[in-house]
Amino acid sequence: MTAARTLRIWRLAGAGLFLAGALFFLYRVRPVLTPFILAALLAYLLKPAVAALEKRGWSRPRAILTLYLCIIALSLPVFFFVLPQLVRELNEFITQLPGFTAEIEGLIQGFYQRYHQAALPAGLRQLVDETIVNVSTALQQGARHAVQALVDLLTGLASFLLAPVLAYYLLRDSEEIGRAAIHLLPLQLKEDVLGLWAEIDQVLTGFIRGHLLVSLIVGFLTGVGLALVGSEYAVILGIVVGLADLIPYFGPLIGTVPVLALSLLASKKAAVLALVVMLVVQQIEGSFLAPRILGASVGLHPLVIIFALLAGGELWGVAGLILAIPLTAIGCIVVKFIWARLVSS
Questions:
Q1: Which of 157, 165, 215, 325 is geometrically suited to a Cys-Cys bond with 245, CB 3.0 to 4.6 A?
Q2: Which of 30, 18, 100 is nearest to 266 (CA)?
């Protein structure tokens, strides 16, 4: 092994250790990162529009503030109609949660009594008993976690209010920030890192802008459709379905389960109407939205995607399911980059 190759390997190892240390630090201070993550996301979404307005001769601050005014104008219906309705539905759901739990337990108890009359082996009967208890416990915990997640969403308004302020500075000073970051890189690594970032940016563009837009439309269509068929929790379920739609493959199924469960507790007719709404929305997504907005995939094999989703869900729950695919795609790009540099050295 030549001295130059050895030095290159040591540099890569040092960079890896530095990156690992930075990630560990960010993990330790993760509670304060929420507004910064939201700001980076907002800046990433608005950057193409800002660049387009700049090409027309607008100053960057003027372009950013104009886009903010447009967003505020579009958000007024949310604040005046959707948010109050969400609070009402959430209060009603919390009030009726004990009744829903009792009804679910009644359904499980009825099934338990019916199956108990059948002649089953003792071992199989014990297994079914344990499964019924576990399902009942999981349903109760899932309902409480869903309520807590919505409450946390409402109580996290401070982060949402701070994010646009931070995003303004990120957008205004993006070139200076980029130049400062590039200036820190060794001269021989600049070209490689810029090429690596171009690949990562392509993945982030497809996932963040595309999937967020599709999920937003799916959640909106679901909420409107459920409201038209008379659902009492149209706004809550629209938000749940929209968030679930960020999860590839499993998202539509995950979003459909709470819709059908709550509708079935109301009546069988409500469940049938809700199922029709979900099927129509998913058909619109699969036939129209996804092909036109998402375009090409992140370039991962379906087996890799499924494994990443299962691993992400096991490690970080719902957040892991949502972030598993972009993180895996970025990880593959970085690993290929490092491997190519090691082999070519």
A1: 215
A2: 100
